[in-house]
Amino acid sequence: MFDFLKRRQLLRRGLASKKVRRRRTHNEFLQSLERSLWVKMSIFALFIGGLAFLVFSGQQAEPTKNFVIALLVLAMAITQLWINQPKTMAQSSRILLVFGVIFVQLAITKLVLVVCNSGHYRILTPQMGALITPYALAAMTLSVLMGRHHGLFAAVFASLWSSMLFGLIDAPILVTSLISGFTAVSLTLQVRKRNKLIRAGFGVGVAILLLSLAFGVIGPIDFFSIAKNDWRMLGLQAAYAVGNGIVTAMIVGGALPMLENLFQVTTDISWLEASDLNHPLLRRMTIEAPGTYHHSLVVANLAEAAAEAIGANATLCRVCSYFHDIGKLVKPEYFTENMTLDRNPHDDLAPTMSALIIISHVKEGVDLALKDKLNHRIIDIIQEHHGTSLVYYFYQRALQQQEDAREGGKIMKLREEDVPEVREESFRYPGPKPQTKESAIVSLADMVESASRSLEKPTPQRIEQLVNELIEERIADGQLDDCDLTLGDVKVIKERFRFTLMSMLHSRIAYPRDTKLTAVRDDGVRPDAMADRRKPPTAPPVSAA
Question: Taking the model in full, what pTM does it have?
């Protein structure tokens, strides 16, 4: 309340703006639940209760023995997840997603097998139940949502639990489930279009068909007397096997949007949909800040190429590169790529004010992203793409002015204490530093692309030297300390940047001009004069922002 009153007083005195910038709010209660050990234990307890219900329901021999085995398998699953996927184990929502999807597959498997073994339905026989069980449901879902490692995790442990739902461990179900799950994961490593899910489902269906033929589930088939075979029944069974995989893929495709919204996970399919350049913010940028728009497109190309080379999410890097500088829409004329020939607005400002305007484009970008409800990963990269780096051009300009003021003060017999001190903190971005590989790649691509515009003769040697020096300076400044890039990754990124920049900045053959086109007009202005436009001589380099 007191802050509100102070703000009103500042507004009346003209010392504050009426604009209130949006900020990301974090729900402390939800964050505590996400980290709570008791919530994680509750999720495991619910999963154990669900396993108990599935194992003890129905008539089967030695259910207690199977339940103990299921608990031991759960202990192995938790240990494996804790060792290989510590980030997943640290988040309650991710644990709920992984074990929830696996339990759904187990419940459907139990339901299908119970109905088929009941004998109440003529079509749904026990033999047919082995063909229509959704073996790859959990593996395919988690592979698309969370990556291949989680998909393989689901394929292994869902298969183990599925095989013990009926008394003795069923080896054919175990092997079919394992191979179907592995097939689903291998075919969904990079799903950028929904039709690839259907193709993956078809591949899973073919795997189920071949395994069913091998285990004698389809048949019987008399290879010595082909005419005696019931081809209608065999065709129907083959259709069920292949249709199993296709229907599973259709279910996964329909469930993905709901799971993405519920658990705040974004798949490559959604990232590809978000890469539409007709987004209102990007359309505004083409009109109000065309230089920034072109810069963002080039950064997207650099970041995508580097991400693909090191195995990071290339689609995410491309989309986030489109939006990383949307904050420049607030004051586009203060950034070099959007300046006109007439004047440089920074000539009338103190270096501290110029740096404040340059730095504020990060906060303004977050404000616009929150207003348009952009993906939280885009907002993170907007905040992190400059880290806590220094606005070097204006910092050096402020130091020079300070030195000039001190020299003048000696003549005027002023004390050194009367000259304002230049604080480096005032010229640094607020951060945080890049937290992920993708954020670091976009940050480096943004820096390299901006600086490459200042190269007068972009030879391969100059481009390589520029890329190496800039990235080494960023590492020395500690801007990559919080992300998980390795030195090997940085080396590959440098090479991809160098190759991509050489492709974009290559020189062209100087064609002879037509003397008629280059003739001087009556008013003394050459028709191609606009081709020789330059930025104001006092404009800061593009890399200053």
Answer: 0.83
C-alpha span between 433 and 439 (Å, rounded): 9
Calpha distance 524→250 (Å, rounded): 69
**Rounded-to-integer distance, Cα 485 and Cα 480, Å:** 8
Q: Determine the pLDDT at residue 207.
A: 94
Residue 166: its pLDDT value, please? 65
For 405-428, b where at least 16 C-beta lie within 10 A, e where not — what string? eeeeeeeeeeeeeebeebeeeebb
pLDDT of residue 507: 62
Beta-bridge mates of residue 390: 428
Where is average pLDDT lowest: 60-74, 265-279, 510-524? 510-524
Instruction: Please name which of 185, 100, 172, 65 lies closest in space to residue 129, comparing C-alpha atoms.
Output: 172
Residue 1's pLDDT is: 47
Mean of the pLDDT values across residues 455-470? 89
CB contact set of 249 (below 8 Å; sequence gap of 6+): 140, 197, 198, 200, 201, 202, 204
CB crowding 461-480: b at 16 or more within 10 Å, else e? eebbebbeebbeebeeeebb
Instruction: Note the pLDDT tens digit of each residue in 244-289.
Output: 999 999 999 999 999 999 998 989 889 988 888 999 999 999 999 9
Alpha-carbon distance values, 84 to 39, 41, 153, 408 (Å): 21, 19, 10, 64
Cβ-proximal residues to 251 (8 Å cutoff; 6+ apart), any chain: 134, 137
Q: Look-up: residue for tokens 């990269």?
A: 381
- Tokens 């092997």 correspond to 175
Query: Cα(157)–Cα(292) distance, rounded to whole angstroms?
Result: 49
Here the tokens at position 545 are 């922002």
DSSP letter for 428, please: B
Domains belonging to the chain, first-starting first, are: 35-269 (no CATH), 276-507+515-544 (1.10.3210)
Q: Which residues pair with 428 in a beta bridge?
A: 390
| pLDDT value at residue 15 | 52
- Phi then psi for residue 22, to 5 deg, are -70, 145
